[in-house]
Design brief:
- By secondary structure, the chain is mainly alpha-helical.
- It has two domains: 3-11 and 20-213, Up-down Bundle (Growth Hormone, Chain: A); 221-431, Growth Hormone, Chain: A (Up-down Bundle).
- The chain is built from 18 helices and no strands.
- The protein has helices at residues 3-8, 27-56, 61-86, 91-114, 120-142, 145-148, 154-183, 185-204, 217-230, 232-263, 267-290, 296-304, 308-316, 320-348, 354-379, 385-404, 407-411, 423-431.
- The chain is globular, with a radius of gyration of 21 Å.
- Its main location: membrane.
- It comes from Streptomyces venezuelae.
- The chain crosses the membrane at residues 32-55, 61-82, 94-116, 122-145, 166-187, 193-213, 234-255, 267-289, 296-316, 322-342, 363-382, 388-406.
C-alpha cells in the first residue's frame, strides 16, 4: 500500500487479509480520535449547564426551547454551505475554524453567565454561533476519515471514533451535574469552550490538503444535488431517516419523561432508562469492532428499527426490567446502524463529493427535530400519550420496511472496487455524469 492510498482512504492491498491492523497505528487518525474525545467531553456537560444557565437567567421551558431552536436553525440553514466548502477547502482547516468558532461562542457564554449578565437573548445569541460552527464542521468531519485510513479499515475506524464518545455520554452528564451543582453553570460552559479550543489545535495538526476547485460554489451545489438525487439509496435513506428520527424524538425525548413520571417512578426511572440506552451504545460500538457485515446498508436500515423497542415498551406499560432491556437493545442497534451507515456512505460516495452528500443527508435528518416536536405538540392534547407512543412505534417500523424495499439499498456491498467505490457506485457515475 502506498502513502497515497493511506492519504485518500482508497487503498485495497489489505482487503483480502485475514488480519486487519488497527487504524490507531496511524498517527493522524490517533490525533483525530483524540480531538473528537476532547471535544465530546465538554459537549457532554454542556446541555445540563445550558439548561441551568437559562433557569438562572429567569427563564423557563419556553426560554429554553427558544435557545435550543436558535442553535438548531443556523445549523440547518448553513449545512449546505458547509457541505460545499468541505469539498472545496481543506477539511482539517474547516474543522479547526469550526471548533475555534464554537470555543468563542461557548467562551463568551461562560463569561456572560459568570458575570451575571445572562439573559435569554444573550444565551440564544451564543447558541446561534455554536449552531453555525456545527454547520461547517459536520460535513467536513464526514470526509476526514476517508483521508486518514484505507477503505478496508473504515468500519473499524468509525467504530473507534464512536467508542470514546459513547463512553463520555455515560459519565459526562453526571460530571456536568456535579460541576454545575458545586461551581455553577459558568464553569461547565467554560470547560466546554476549553475543550473546543484544544480540539481545534489538534485538528490543525492534521494538515489535510484542499481539493482543486474547478467551478463556482453555486455550480458545485447544483452538481451536488444532482449527485444526491441520482443515488436512490442515499435520498431514500435520508427520507426514511427524517421520518424515523422525528418519531423517535417525539416518543423518546418528549413523551418518555412524561410517561415515566405518570406510570413509573419519575426521574429515577428515566435516569435508569437513559443509562441503559447509553450502555447499549457502548455495546453496539464493541459489536461493530468485531462484526463486519457484507450488506452494510441493509444492516444499517434494519438496525434502525430497534429504536421502536423502548417506545413499544412505554406504550404497553411493560415492567421496568423489560423497559430497561428495550433501551439497551435500542442503544446497541442504533450504534450498529450508525457505524454501518457511515461506512457504507464513505465507501460509496467519491471523496470529492462527501461534504455535499453529507450536508444533504444531515439537512433532512436535522429537520426531523422540529418536525417531531411540533407534531407531538399538536396531537398530545387530543390523544393519550400511550396512543401517540404506539403510533410512533408503528412509524419507525413502517419507515424501516419501506426503505428495505428499495432495490439499491439491498445492492450496496462492503467490498470496494479498485477506484474506491463499489460496483453500484461505478454504475451510478456512468449513468449520471453530474454525480
Amino acid at each position: 500500500m502506498t502513502t497515497n492510498d493511506i492519504g485518500t482512504g482508497t487503498g485495497t492491498a489489505a482487503e483480502g487479509s485475514t488480519h486487519t491492523p488497527s487504524p490507531l497505528r496511524l498517527p493522524a487518525f490517533r490525533r483525530f480520535v483524540l480531538a473528537q474525545l476532547v471535544s465530546a467531553t465538554g459537549s457532554a456537560m454542556a446541555p445540563l449547564a445550558l439548561a441551568y444557565a437559562v433557569i438562572g437567567a429567569g427563564g423557563g421551558a419556553g426560554a429554553l426551547g427558544l435557545v435550543l431552536a436558535t442553535s438548531t436553525v443556523p445549523t440547518v440553514a448553513f449545512l449546505l454551505v458547509g457541505g460545499v466548502l468541505a469539498d472545496r477547502l481543506s477539511r482539517s482547516r474547516l474543522l479547526f475554524l469550526g471548533n475555534l468558532l464554537a470555543a468563542a461562542g461557548q467562551g463568551a457564554l461562560a463569561l456572560v453567565v459568570a458575570a451575571g449578565h445572562a439573559s435569554t437573548g444573550t444565551i440564544a445569541a451564543c447558541g446561534f454561533v455554536s449552531g453555525v460552527a456545527i454547520a461547517f464542521t459536520t460535513p467536513a468531519a464526514q470526509g476526514v476519515v476517508t483521508r486518514l485510513v484505507p477503505a478496508h479499515q473504515l468500519q473499524q475506524a468509525n467504530a473507534l471514533l464512536r467508542l470514546p464518545t459513547n463512553a463520555v455520554k455515560v459519565v459526562g452528564p453526571v460530571a456536568g451535574g456535579l460541576v454545575v451543582a458545586v461551581s455553577g453553570p459558568a464553569w461547565a460552559l467554560g470547560f466546554d469552550a476549553l475543550t473546543f479550543g484544544v480540539a481545534a489545535l489538534l485538528l490543525l495538526g492534521l494538515r489535510l490538503g484542499a481539493p482543486v476547485a474547478k467551478g463556482s460554489a453555486l455550480a458545485d451545489l447544483r452538481e451536488g444535488w444532482s449527485g444526491f438525487w441520482s443515488r436512490t439509496w442515499l435520498w431514500t435513506y435520508t427520507a426514511a431517516g427524517t421520518v424515523l428520527v422525528a418519531a423517535w424524538l417525539a416518543g423518546y425525548q418528549l413523551l418518555g419523561p412524561v410517561v415515566t413520571e405518570q406510570e413509573y417512578d419519575g426521574a429515577r426511572t428515566w435516569g435508569l432508562v437513559q443509562g441503559a440506552f447509553s450502555s447499549g451504545l457502548l455495546a453496539g460500538t464493541v459489536v461493530c469492532l468485531r462484526w463486519k457485515p457484507e450488506r452494510l446498508l441493509v444492516v444499517a436500515v434494519s438496525a434502525s428499527s430497534g429504536l421502536a423497542l423502548p417506545l413499544a415498551a412505554l406504550a404497553l406499560g411493560l415492567p421496568l426490567p423489560w423497559l430497561l432491556l428495550s433501551a439497551v437493545l435500542a442503544g446497541i442497534t442504533l450504534d450498529v446502524a450508525g457505524v454501518t451507515w457511515v461506512t457504507a456512505f464513505q465507501q460509496n460516495v467519491p471523496d470529492a463529493e462527501l461534504g455535499r452528500m453529507s450536508s444533504f443527508n444531515q439537512v433532512g435528518e436535522r429537520l426531523a427535530v422540529p418536525l417531531g416536536y411540533l407534531v407531538v405538540a399538536l396531537v398530545s392534547s387530543a390523544f393519550a400519550d400511550r396512543s401517540v407512543l404506539a403510533v410512533c412505534t408503528g412509524i419507525i417500523v413502517a419507515a424501516t420496511l419501506l426503505n428495505l424495499c428499495v432495490r439499491d439499498v439491498r445492492r450496496i456491498r462492503r467490498a470496494p472496487s479498485r477506484n474506491g467505490g463499489t460496483r453500484l457506485e461505478t454504475r451510478n457515475r456512468e449513468r449520471t455524469p453530474n454525480s
